[in-house]
Amino acid sequence: MAKITYITSDNQTHTVEVQNGLTVMEGAVQNDIPGIDADCGGGMACATCHVYVKDDWFNRIPKKEDGEDDMLDMAFEPKTNSRLSCQIIVSDELDGLEVNIPSKQA
Amino acid sequence: MKKTDALIIGAGPTGLFTAHQLKLIGLDCEIVDNLDKVGGQCIELYPDKPIYDIPAVPECTGEELTNNLLNQLKPFDIKFHLNERVEEVKKEDNDWLVKTSGGNSFLTPNVIIAGGVGSFEPRKFSPKECEKFENKSLFYSVKDKNIFKGKTVSIFGGGDSALDWAIELSKKSNVNLIHRRDEFRGAQATVDKMYELKEEGKIKLFTKYQMANPHGEQTLESIDIKHDNNEITNLKTDYVLGFFGLIMQLGPIANWGLNLNKKTIEVDTEKFETNQKGIYAVGDICNYPGKLKLILSGFHEGALTARACFKLARPDEKYRFEFTTTSTNLLKRLGKKE
Asked: Is B41 in contact with A69 (Cβ distance < 8 A)?
């Protein structure tokens, strides 16, 4: 279990508890947090669950696997701290993680 | 105006198999799709990626699955309307009047939405100012490459479309290629060719840059591009091309009076009918308790919807359940019996 904070582009903060093994994307969708579309359902095929991970966390969470950066090319306003939230799997180590949701997904 | 027993919106795997089921039980159908080819997400998102959970098919790619479905449709005559988006669905007596962006209209008792997560549209540049130049000097696809002759073209993107056009246009235009990182995801041979042209000075390459701002009153004059380190560079340019792949948009479906849940359409699990009689939703776009976004679920949903369509298309006949192994009727339709 980890407490994850999602910050929307208009600075609304949503902190929820997400079970280990779920993804950061699933944590948002199951808790009706706005701004994460996840059109493809977590298949790394659409880039609509794009988030920015705060710098100190970016280097602590598991690294991107092949293909994630390819999809991020298509995301709306990608930055160096961009991730696809469907590829970040929640564990106890992620307790306190903060992610920012872009102003739109496409 | 075309009359048909059922109109299918979406030529992905679910739409294709639904067509098979309709034809098998003796109904006509036509299919409309916004893309220029059949296959839907399978072709657009993962043509080369293997799928391992189609029943009785241990492994196949999106492209193979699509080709197999088309093979399965061979006995039947099905009209496809590609490159057309359904714009309007309107009640007309007991039928639905459906109009497409290609100027086609259909009158049908049954409309089956097999639209995945909506229609594919090009992903656009983030800065709002870019809209002003869209379809004038800023494009997301190339219709006529001759307009770029002798001009400066700034191409954004890191995939095959961006690379292919950079290479092609560099023959007769000044080309800037701009990409947000150093790695390109295009085919290796294409990437190598692009670097070769860069060495020869035929392509100017800007990596770790993104579009910041277009400049110009009526016509585009230049663009600002921004480096990861926030440094801005101004490039004189006549045209801009953006290749960021496609995004799925629900589009006009949102205006048809259907019960929606986020980007999905609520249906029952007997007919997969929406809150509008004679409009059904199958595959990824439909939603009901326990819904799984799997291709196999789409096949099941399409089979049941086809039977529901029979009632509205042939109100005076009774549908009789038959197996393809034993039914003379079905075997005739499949072309296996005279």
From this structure: no
Q: How far is A74 from chain B (nearest CA, A)?
A: 5
Within chain B, which residue ranges are assigned CATH 3.50.50.60? 2-121+247-333, 124-244
Q: What secondary structure, in 3-state letters, does A54-91 show?
A: CHHHHCCCCCCCCCHHHHHCCCCCCCCCEEEHHHCECC
Q: By CA distance, what is A78's nearest residue in B?
A: B180
The superfamily (CATH) of domain B2-121+247-333 is FAD/NAD(P)-binding domain (3.50.50.60)
B181 close contact with A: CB closer than 8 A: yes
In CATH, the number for domain B124-244 is 3.50.50.60
The reply to whether A48 touches chain B by the CB within 8 Å rule is yes
Of B303, B308, B338, B309, the C-alpha closest to B323 is B303
Cβ–Cβ of A73/B245 closer than 8 Å? Answer: yes
- B80 CA to chain A: closest CA distance, Å? 25
- How many domains does one find in chain A? 1
Please report the ipTM that was assigned to this predicted complex: 0.81
- Helical ranges in B90-223 per DSSP H: 160-169, 188-199
Dihedral angle computed from the Cα positions of residues A69, A74, A76 and A81, in that order, rounded to the nearest 10 degrees: 10
Tens-digit pLDDT string for chain B (338 aa): 999 999 999 999 999 999 999 999 999 999 999 999 999 988 887 788 899 999 999 999 999 999 999 999 999 999 999 999 999 999 999 999 999 999 999 999 999 999 998 888 889 999 999 999 999 999 999 989 999 999 999 999 999 999 999 999 999 999 999 999 999 998 999 999 999 999 999 999 999 999 999 999 989 999 999 999 999 999 999 999 999 988 878 888 988 999 998 789 999 999 999 999 999 999 999 999 999 999 999 999 999 999 999 999 999 999 999 999 999 999 999 999 88
